[in-house]
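Question: what's this shape?

___
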Amino acid sequence: MKKLLIVASIVMAIFLMGSAKAEEVLIPQEAIRLRVIPNSNEEEDQALKIEVRNQVQKEIARLLKNVTSVEEARTILKDNLHDFEVIVEDTIQEQKVQETFHLNYGMNYFPQKVYKGVTYEEGYYESLVITLGRGEGDNWWCVLFPPLCLLEAEETSETTETEYKFFVKELLDRFFKNE
């Protein structure tokens, strides 16, 4: 009976935590974002956006690999803006498209976004923004520092398999294993 009460308490706590604040922001205040905005939503423009993102992310992941402070990340990003421009330019040429682009590091506007049940408020955020052409397509963005999207990029490049786990089930399995 005691175990049943404990399990019920755990499940209730998890339920209350999940429903208490659906608009919880998971991005730290001192974060630096990356945003890539394509020319349009045409298939070719969206494909270019993804390729630019991939190439720029690789270089940023390499540069920020052992960085532990936002100040250090900020300095490295600012010092390498020209290199990012070269990467974007080379990627555009490799894709054999004629496209202009603009790269900006600073406080840039981000529209509100709901992702996985979390609302990320609109506003101006420190970021590296790459705008391709007119910049009228659906954008992609993530957090560079702390390296949330860089970790995600490494995980997806290493494996194509995804393992899903259910936290409550794992907790219950561990709890009842001791019987």
Remarks:
- Residues 31-177 form one domain.
